[in-house]
Amino acid sequence: MNYCFNNKCFAILILLTFFSIRLNAQKAPSSSLVSSSPKCPSWVPDAVFYEIYPQTFSDTDGDGIGDLKGIIQNLRYVKSLGVSAIWLNPFYESPFRDAGYDVSDFYKVAARYGTNEDAKKLFQEAHELGLKVIIDYVPGHTSIDHPWFKASASAKPNKYSNWYVWTNNTWDNGGSEFAGKMIQGFSERNGNFMTNYFWHQPALNFGFGKVDPKKPWQLPANHPDVRELKDEMKNVLKYWLDMGADGFRIDMAGSLTKNDQGSLECIKWWKEVREMLDTQYPNAFIVSEWSHPPAALEGGFHADYLHWIAEYENLFRKEQSRSLNGVSPDGYSYFDQKGMGDISAFMNVYLKQLEETKSKGFISIPVGNHDLSRITNNRSKEDLEIIYAFLMTMPGVPFFYYGDEIGMKQLLIENAKEGCYKPRAGARTPMQWNTSNNAGFSAASSEKLWLPIDSDPLRPTVQTALNNPTSIWYRTKHLIELRRKEKALYAQADFKVLYMEKDKYPFIYSRSLGNEKIIVALNPSGKELSVEIPLKIKGKLELLSGTPSILNTTGDKTMLTMKGVSYSIYKLK
Ligand code: NOJ
């Protein structure tokens, strides 16, 4: 597989490409841009993803729930925003106790979304527009309604008995290390099953890293029954790739193997998956919900999201957590006009992990997704633009959440819908397309909608945003296009912090690839600020986005002065 692309290795690259094409005749090899870059499909370095929540994107059959036909109809819209790829949340058959993350058939699209044929058509039509589509893959658990689990729960031993983790006796709760994880008295089978998330999501059995000899129900990761399950889970991946999917967002990817010190067995399994992809589907991209990039990227993921860590709170959501989630972290987030946040807490973790994972893969910092509250509340268009400027100029692969491009609000929804407990439901409300009934999302009566629509008469919509050249939609599109145009902003381009102090503003960094260099300065606080950065500006500066800052170079240092609530993205010429 080739992954170097500077002048020196150009000749070698040609040779390697030639051989790898010959060795791998059926699919194009993956590539990226510089020799130290992580190996990844060639479409990834400049990719920008758009996450679509199928329940609430667009409903074409009037049942109040979005569907695949609705997504197909709006592919041109997605394309018009400038993104290059889609992440689609689970569309599989499911009893929907966790909004589809409780799968009851990995091989079948849920009737409410359409058919497998619709999925195929979605992949095809997206490809015709030059869009890639990755889909959610949930390997850690199934629904209790999955036929595998039903068979596993039977008292009579069968092929599926060991596909889930069961103790040997209903009075054996597995031991204190599994407190709260075992469900007792579920079926005639004499034993308790282990859950992976909600109680109704039994853990698929990927085995144990360290087996306790006193607990014979713990199977090693190479047990033949575990092996059989793993092979079947690989078949699931192949099935959707063969149908046209371009990869997967992988749910709770680090949760598979139990009692697994250092996630060693889990990493081993993912390496095996990556090897299969590299040889059979080299254009497929996998991104994990692990939130520990050193482990995830070691396992072969092309990228990992870093957001399930305490320090992530420092970025966007501290105030929101207080008002929306009922959780009360101290202090303020960084991207807030009060200017009382601290970016160093998150960045110190990030920088360490970035260094550790440099040539292995990418770290994605989501600013929104279906599990996080929307970042829009109590923020102005200018605040949002600074956040999106951050998203589009950081290393790794950026993911945009549907509706954030028009500034859709987080709604206060008290009751859970299909396991979307607060604040999740409030971030999963219907897409606001236009000013017609139900904001153009569905022809159903409003009580039938999967979740209510923002009732604010001034709610943002795509239609109003498109009619206003100064809307956040156009600013978002501009930033996405910039990200995809400038090589120095690509996923693997170097990242260097130029100004970051605990509890201080602004945050300034450079991105560079080859001869190209970009400087990004972000000041979400309301105050005008001047700081000195270790940078000598010799040539010209081109303002690519944002408002001009004042830059004065003396010797090897530059004084940078920027207005409150502003950002500047400069290209060094
Ligand atoms: C993470 C998913 O993003 C979330 O929505 C889901 O509830 C859990 N994993 C369980 O699958």
The gist of it:
Helices cover 25% and strands 16% of the residues. With 573 residues, it is an alpha/beta fold. The structure holds 1-deoxynojirimycin.
Task: Please provide a written account of the structure.
This protein has helices at residues 10-23, 68-73, 75-80, 116-128, 147-152, 224-243, 264-280, 293-298, 313-316, 318-325, 344-357, 381-393, 462-466, 472-485; strands spanning 49-52, 85-88, 92-93, 105-109, 132-137, 182-183, 193-194, 247-250, 285-288, 303-305, 362-364, 399-401, 494-499, 507-513, 516-523, 529-533, 541-546, 550-554, 557-562, 566-572. By secondary structure, the chain is an alpha/beta fold. Among the domains are: 7-138 and 307-488, Alpha-Beta Barrel (TIM Barrel); 495-572, Immunoglobulin-like. Strands 11-10-9-8-5-2-1-12 form an 8-stranded parallel beta sheet. Strands 13-14-15-20-17 form a 5-stranded antiparallel beta sheet, covered by helices on one side. It has a 3-stranded antiparallel beta sheet with strand order 16-19-18, with no helix packed on it. It is globular. The model is unreliable at 1-33 (pLDDT under 50). 1-deoxynojirimycin binds at residues 98, 101, 138, 197, 251-252, 289, 370-371.
Furnish the topology, listing elements before pairings.
Elements: H1 10-23, E1 49-52, H2 68-73, H3 75-80, E2 85-88, E3 92-93, E4 105-109, H4 116-128, E5 132-137, H5 147-152, E6 182-183, E7 193-194, H6 224-243, E8 247-250, H7 264-280, E9 285-288, H8 293-298, E10 303-305, H9 313-316, H10 318-325, H11 344-357, E11 362-364, H12 381-393, E12 399-401, H13 462-466, H14 472-485, E13 494-499, E14 507-513, E15 516-523, E16 529-533, E17 541-546, E18 550-554, E19 557-562, E20 566-572
Parallel strand pairs: 1-2, 1-12, 2-5, 5-8, 8-9, 9-10, 10-11
Antiparallel strand pairs: 3-4, 6-7, 13-14, 14-15, 15-20, 16-19, 17-20, 18-19
Helix pairs in contact: 12-14
The structure holds 1-deoxynojirimycin.
